[in-house]
Amino acid sequence: MNLAKKIxxxxxxxxxxxxxxxxxxxxxTVKDFLTEMKKEDKLSKxxxxxxxxxxxxxxxxxxxxxxxxxxxxxKVDINQVPNLKKDLRGKLSKFAWxxxxxxxxxxxxxxxxxxxxxxxxxxxxxxxVDTAPTVDRALARRAGIGWQGKNCSxxxxxxxxxxxxxxxxxxxxxxxxMPIKNKCKGCQKCIEACPTGALEEPYVLxxxxxxxxxxxxxxYIENEKRxxxxxxxxxxxxxxxxxxxxxxxxxxxxxEFQPQTVEHYPRLPTLLTLTNKxxxxxxxxxxxxxxxxxxxQRNAAIIMGNLKNPKAISYLIDGLEDPKPIVRAHSAWALxxxxxxxxxxxxxxxxxxxxxxxxxxEIRKVINQLLDGC
Length: 374
Ligand code: SF4
Ligand code: SF4
Hints:
Layout: H1 3-13, E1 18-23, H2 28-39, H3 51-55, H4 57-60, E2 66-73, E3 91-92, H5 101-119, E4 125-129, H6 133-143, E5 147-148, E6 154-155, E7 163-170, H7 189-193, E8 199-201, E9 204-205, H8 211-214, H9 223-228, E10 232-234, H10 238-241, H11 244-247, H12 268-272, H13 276-283, H14 294-307, H15 313-319, H16 325-338, H17 344-353, H18 357-372
Parallel strand pairs: 3-10
Antiparallel strand pairs: 1-2, 2-7, 4-7, 5-6, 8-9
Helix pairs in contact: 14-16, 15-16, 16-18, 17-18
This protein binds iron/sulfur cluster (2 copies).
One iron/sulfur cluster (SF4) binds at residues 151, 194-196, 198-199, 205, 210-212, 236, 238-239.
């Protein structure tokens, strides 16, 4: 058995669902595409700015000859997840349900590196997990892990697009795999379902419009995007949920990706008042561990507004007293969405004590909106 086959066999043995190999040639067309996207300000801020580095494996490892690309399915058996869709709850994207995938796939890649080292102690390797999503996907497409869908996800023939991608750049010259045929054909379901028009054309995702990025970003969210969030607390699965190739996708059944410290529909009042200690306890082992608690609190306030459930009013009034302006501002907006004019007194009190211009503007706007509606 040649080394490429042994690597694939070992990868499957340690729980990777797919292992393919491509060359270490640079991704020059991807670099051109990203350069254009950057010029048009459509590129996610999470993509590292050094495009040469992220599109050329040899910039990471000068002796690179091959890239081993791996995928692990994060789809879990829904019957094993409690049904919590009621009351004041918000939805987490499936990628954020369980343990931090960087750690899960990262430790499997470490095992794979150790395996290579045993075969050849002089081997050079560099691992990557989420170096930049677009580039990981480009390597996955070239290695034949799946085809790139019009929603920009990589679609694996069995596991659909519910996969995390990671890999190893190595100086070993390995037998490579071929890309697989794109099966999107005339389908446009993802483009039609996107609530913000972020999929501007097939295969072109404008990150500045994408709720997958917006919900993870810091700072204020534009009003129209707040509404578009619906109940999306962290990430957005819509363009994957509608994909025909995801309907019957096989589950990897990795227990690590089942909800553990955080429910997949967490209670919003608990999140709005999250303390640093609670944030650490609940989120440090998840893929939501890198942004801090403010965006989670902000999103919880927005969703309570979108739910228009009067039960949220008392929590949002408390939110007007949060130490962070971002939480106060979005709590005020959410109160306006619920639209109960009895809260004008609380909003006026909040306005009187508020010191931040932006928050004052948000509160004033809501007071006017509620009084106009009287
Ligand atoms: Fe649109 Fe959501 Fe897909 Fe982003 S993740 S492209 S917002 S459907
Ligand atoms: Fe392709 Fe249709 Fe899936 Fe979009 S929804 S990725 S067009 S198959």
